[in-house]
Amino acid sequence: MSRRYYDFADSRELGGYATVDLTGAWRVSSVTEVQVRFANAFDRRYETATLYPALGREFFVTLRYRAPR
User: What pTM value is reported for the model?
Assistant: First the structure.
């Protein structure tokens, strides 16, 4: 496990974090698929670097079409 710090002097350590991401996909037809992604499901507040807060809960829907061969 690596450590992350607030400053260049490595004097103040940033805390660790974990998020829960969920993904599901459904094939609608032989050429169409719907994908749903729920990122940071529990809306965890954290910073990837000092003063750079991560986004909160996010929800994405993707529609994929594959041309028949």
Answer: 0.67
